[in-house]
Amino acid sequence: MQNMFSVTNSTLAVLPGRNCKVLCWGKRCFLLYIKFLSIIEEILSKFLQETVEKLIQVDIAENALKNAVQSEIPTVSVVADEECLPFKEDVFDLVVSSLSLHWVNDLPRAFREIHQVLKPDGVFIGAMFGGDTLYELRCSLQLAELEREGGFSPHVSPFTAVSDLGHLLSRAGFNTLTVDTDEIQVNYPGLFEVMEDLQGMGESNCSWNRKPLLHRETMLAAAAIYQEMYGNSDGSVPATFQIYYMIGWKFHESQARPAQRGSATVSFGDLAKIDGLLSRGKK
């Protein structure tokens, strides 16, 4: 059963329903942002019809929703945007975003929207592409364009720096923050294969002020620079994808809080003596 709503990157949401215990989070309800349908399929496999009353799959592209995986759970598809979520306040216990937030124009607003739809003591778990993503491609294109055309313009979408991420989450109202980074390298035969793969993934440059085309000579120069500066011994070239992982909680009175300054009863200096104390206790 799948209905289509016309409201306004890929999102999967669980409405408040009966016994919504999904992903071992107890009897709670969830809102999940998922960009790639293969990830949606993996998460849907964790959902049981007995524990989830209704699913809402949300994407800004209606065609993507039409190709979404089917589920035994009653499903509603909603065309929506992270910057303007069509949900009431304090609805969801968990929001998960996977590799879609780098497409958001106003990231602070998107974080505020996510914080708003969370219940008190709700948690946001996200993953997004970071600032060092595709740095090899960016550098090669810039050097080639400077050499052949006397200047350059951005040809890769902008990404957020990890130093800004914690501040943005905190400013949106999240607390007890955790931010981590990881890098994944994928090897390709050359620059043109990298760009073809990015185009197939729907990850082309989305900047409005982007240059409409690159000259053939510039592209060939960029491919040569890419191979010379970053090429592997086997002739392939690496493409780096940096992933930021983040966790933030919405405040609730029951959450653990830091103790008052000066209330500690044990000094960190005593940690050096712990081995002696333990050995003395064994005797």
Question: Would you write up a description of this structure?
Answer:
The chain is of the alpha/beta class. It has helices at residues 37-44, 62-66, 107-117, 135-149, 162-171, 191-200, 216-230, 274-282, and strands at residues 2-5, 11-14, 30-34, 55-59, 75-79, 92-98, 118-129, 175-188, 237-249. It contains 8 helices and 9 strands. A 9-stranded mixed sheet has the order 1-5-4-2-3-6-7-9-8, with helices on both faces. Helix 3 (107-117) links the parallel strand 6 and strand 7. Helix 4 (135-149) crosses helix 7. The chain is globular. The termini are far apart.
- Using only C-alpha atoms, the radius of gyration works out to 24 Å
Number of helices: 8
**Percent of residues in beta strands?**
15-25%
Class by alpha and beta content: alpha/beta
Question: What is the β-strand count?
Answer: 9
Helix content: 25-40%
Q: How many angstroms separate the termini? A: 69 Å
How are the strands ordered across the major sheet?
1-5-4-2-3-6-7-9-8
Mean pLDDT: 76
> Which H/E pattern describes the elements?
EEEHEHEEHEHHEHHEH
Overall geometry comes to: globular
Indicate the topology.
Elements: E1 2-5, E2 11-14, E3 30-34, H1 37-44, E4 55-59, H2 62-66, E5 75-79, E6 92-98, H3 107-117, E7 118-129, H4 135-149, H5 162-171, E8 175-188, H6 191-200, H7 216-230, E9 237-249, H8 274-282
Parallel strand pairs: 1-5, 3-6, 4-5, 6-7
Antiparallel strand pairs: 2-3, 2-4, 7-9, 8-9
Helix pairs in contact: 4-7
